[in-house]
Automatic annotation (TrEMBL):
Pfam families: ABATE, zf-CGNR. It comes from Umezawaea endophytica. Residues 133-175 form the Zinc finger CGNR domain. This is CGNR zinc finger domain-containing protein. Gene3D superfamilies: Jann2411-like domain (1.10.3300.10). It comes from the Bacteria.
């Protein structure tokens, strides 16, 4: 599983587990095991939770709802139905505790992970912060990100991947 965390928001990084949404979708979370591994890769939990098929489908449903809402925010549209998001955001989040050794421990199940993602999305989608949402400028990338740049002119989700590819292609075209 080749995941990156470049969106500037946990909920958008979760949405980013599907790539190339307008062409040939790239599914980074192919099943429950991938989702469990993502929770630790994202730093949400210290140990991967148990994820069954039903829980995996709930997570996918939330992810697609977050994508819909983020696109509405990006386009300045009303959100419409937000009950699914608010339902998850209202649940107990991941428990974070500081140990005597100074190490932070993160515990909880998949429901707690989805609640934490939901809360992150609520914070992101609250206006006026939602106006900083952008979609990557690379032709096939559909990754959404928060543009925290000083001028609000960031063009790519990640300079190392998409930005570099676009610039290299432009260079080759100029010198062909």
């Amino acid at each position: 599983m080749d995941v990156t965390f470049v969106s500037g928001n946990l909920a958008l990084d979760f949405v980013g587990t599907v790539g190339s949404r307008r062409t040939e979708r790239v599914q980074l979370l192919a099943g429950p095991d991938d989702l469990a591994a993502w929770t630790t890769a994202a730093g949400l939990l210290d140990e991967a939770p148990a994820v069954d098929d039903r829980a995996f489908q709930q997570a996918v449903e939330l992810r697609e709802e977050l994508y819909r809402l983020a696109c509405a925010a990006r386009d300045g549209e009303d959100y419409g139905d937000v009950a699914l998001l608010n339902g998850w955001a209202a649940k107990p989040p991941v428990v974070v505790a500081l140990g005597a050794d100074g190490v932070v421990r993160r515990t909880g199940g998949l429901d707690a992970v989805l609640a934490t993602i939901g809360r992150s999305a609520v914070d992101l989608l609250a206006r006026p912060l939602a106006s900083e949402l952008r979609e990557c400028g690379a032709e096939t990338c559909t990754r959404l990100y928060v543009d925290h740049s000083r001028r609000g002119a960031r063009r790519w989700c990640d300079m190392k991947r998409c930005g570099n590819r676009v610039k290299a292609a432009q260079f080759r075209a100029r010198h062909a």
